[in-house]
Specification:
Elements: H1 2-12, H2 35-48, H3 54-64, H4 74-81, H5 94-97, H6 100-105, H7 109-121, H8 127-150, H9 155-169, H10 179-182, H11 190-202, H12 207-215, H13 221-236, H14 240-247, H15 252-265, E1 272-275, E2 278-281, E3 289-290, E4 296-298, H16 300-307, E5 319-323, E6 326-331, E7 334-343, E8 349-356, H17 363-370, E9 381-382
Antiparallel strand pairs: 1-2, 3-8, 4-8, 4-9, 5-6, 6-7, 7-8
Helix pairs in contact: 1-12, 1-13, 2-3, 2-15, 7-8, 8-9, 8-13, 11-13, 12-13
Bound molecules: magnesium ion.
Length: 383
């Protein structure tokens, strides 16, 4: 969520005074938090208090800050001032800029998407408003999973996979974005902002780079900055100095929520893994049964080829895959085997440990994948 706040503060100066200079000043006394930060913190505050009444929390927080930098959008301002606020069918990008805490607090994808819908629905109950919130939360959720699997540097291919997974899940969004069509155009809609945010992230190489690209597009700088920042945080993490600097702009009660939210969510672990576009449960939660360890060895080259993984297709039903310190054999959303090799003095990698889930076929499966035809040329050599 701090990524959204940083994107908002950095972009605030340029919301109504757009810049196309990539090397603009990130922070100054002309920057401040805006509605994007207030609403994001309100969502986090509701979660911290175990409430799903996001409308009440957003309403209350916005009332406490009636005149933020940049003000509130027309319809939203009326909603804030109303004593009986009702959803008003909005598809504005406000649904997408405030949703990020949900993706950090909830580990189950299904539940997370449901709560993301609720954060939008109290005002932005148009299908495009809900879709925008869910698409951003879904991307953050999956970025967390990939970072747990691969660490900080996802690389271009995984980054593309991550974002294409969002496009697949939310038909209608695409990356066919022409710079001329979006540069210096103020588009406040979800459908006009979220695909642009995903496109910017796809072309970025780090957190600061992504936020700079978002803000200097000359569009809805603070909100696009907030959405891009929220996704970029999950992909690359945030440099410490940026966190420290951004917090100096917040009020004490805002800082309290940010810190408490961080403390409560920092040890959260996504309950799933993504392998070639298929969602798997967290393998650490599987009931793994130890198995006999047959005598199997790989040469250095064979081992390296194997740990790169193997994309499943109609010819190859099982996908060998590395996750953290273990090698796995997976199929269609199920973990089947996990094993670990040890490099010995003979320079070869020896199978050292071998576990199975109940859904597997015992040692036959290990032989099937490692020995009989899942590689050409065969990777396995028997001692
Ligand atoms: Mg704003």
């Amino acid at each position: 969520m701090l990524g959204a706040i940083i994107g908002d503060i950095v972009g605030s100066r340029w919301e109504f005074n757009p810049t196309n200079d990539y090397n603009f000043e990130l922070f100054s006394d002309k920057n401040n938090y805006t509605d994007d930060t207030i609403c994001t913190i309100a969502v986090a505050d509701a979660i911290l208090n175990g409430s799903n009444d996001f409308g009440q929390y957003i309403h209350s927080w916005c009332r406490r800050y009636p005149h933020p930098m940049g003000g509130y959008g027309g319809r939203f301002a009326q909603w804030v001032m109303s004593d009986h606020p009702r959803p008003y069918g909005s598809y504005g990008n406000g649904a997408a800029m405030r949703v990020s805490p949900v993706a950090w607090a909830l580990n189950s994808c299904k539940e997370m998407l449901h709560v993301a819908k609720m954060t939008a629905g109290c005002t932005h109950n148009h299908p495009e408003g809900i879709k925008g919130a869910q698409a951003v939360a879904f991307t953050i959720h999956n970025a967390r999973i990939l970072r747990a699997q691969y660490g900080k540097n996802l690389g271009e291919e995984l980054l593309r996979d991550l974002l294409e997974y969002t496009l697949w899940k939310f038909p209608g969004y695409n990356f066919d974005v022409q710079t001329d069509a979006v540069q210096n155009r103020f588009d406040e809609t979800c459908q006009g902002t979220v695909p642009v945010a995903l496109w910017i992230v796809q072309n970025s190489t780090g957190f600061e780079d992504a936020v700079r690209r978002a803000v200097c597009l000359g569009a809805d700088a603070d909100t696009l900055g907030a959405i891009v920042g929220s996704i970029a945080e999950a992909i690359w993490g945030i440099p410490e100095w940026l966190k420290t600097k951004a917090l100096t702009y917040l009020t004490d009660e805002m800082k309290c929520v940010v810190k408490e939210f961080h403390n409560r969510t920092k040890n959260n672990k996504p309950q799933s893994a993504l392998i070639y576009g298929v969602e798997y449960s967290n393998p650490d939660l599987e009931d793994w049964q130890p198995e006999d360890v047959p005598s199997l060895t790989f040469t250095e080259q064979q081992y390296k080829t194997f740990v790169r993984g193997y994309i499943p297709d109609w010819e190859c039903r099982f996908a060998p895959f590395q996750y953290k310190d273990w090698l796995y054999i997976t199929r269609s959303g199920f973990w089947l085997k996990k094993f670990r090799f040890e490099k010995k003095d003979d320079g070869l990698y020896h199978l050292a440990e071998h576990f199975t889930t109940r859904k597997t076929m015992g040692n036959d499966l290990l032989k099937t994948v490692l020995i009989e035809g899942y590689y050409d040329p065969p990777l396995f050599c028997r001692q």
